[in-house]
Amino acid sequence: MILSDADILRRLEEGDLVVEPVDDPDIQIQPASIDLRLGKEFLEFQRTNISCIHPNSEQEVEEYVDETVVEDGDEFILHPGDFVLGTTHERVEIPDDLIAHVEGRSSLGRLAIVVHATAGLCDPGYKGQITLELSNLGTAPVALSPGMRISQLTFTELKSPADRPYGAERGSKYQDQSGPQASKIQGDREFGGDQ
Predict the structure, then answer these.
(1) Three-state DSSP class for 86?
(2) What value does the mean pLDDT take over residues 84-111?
(3) Does 194 reside within a domain?
(4) For residue 131, what is the domain's CATH number?
(5) Is residue 68 in some structural domain?
(6) Residue 65: inside a domain, yes or no?
(7) Which positions are annotated as active-site residues?
(8) Is 121 helix (H, G, I), strand (E, B) or coil?
(9) What share of the chain in percent tops pLDDT 70?
(10) 3-state DSSP assignment of residue 64
(11) How far is CA 135 from CA 118, 144, 166, in A?
């Protein structure tokens, strides 16, 4: 079952679902979703002469990204073909009986802005800000302003709560993240890690 606006409001008021801050519920809470705003921090991939990034390399992907923090009143210009990691302004806590889906807003989609490449899911138990995988698929640069509504979350109720929710007990790599996080794929079991 997908949560409606009334369900979302009830769960927020009860405190088991956390999305904070929600400064304007009348604008942010939609009929079956909640709009999330763009944060100020971005990770931009450097143009580099390396042949490729190897996910199993000990050299971390973070070495190939630069952090940009946009000051109040300024904009981040996303150029055609660019891919950057951004973050939501809001921090979320997803209870064990819900799964959250990160979606783009149609108004930005009509400007060719995509908010996630593949990571459109927040598992039960996830806590933290959400890293956005921002791309400009269009032919013109687009100005993104921190604080603008950039994405939306929809919530699906699970048939039963997750037995092993996302979190420290599972060794989850991105739990409690703040700001955009580069890939930590080298920690996956198939690459010799423990996750």
Answers:
(1) strand
(2) 95
(3) no
(4) 2.70.40.10
(5) yes
(6) yes
(7) 133
(8) strand
(9) 87
(10) helix
(11) 12, 12, 27
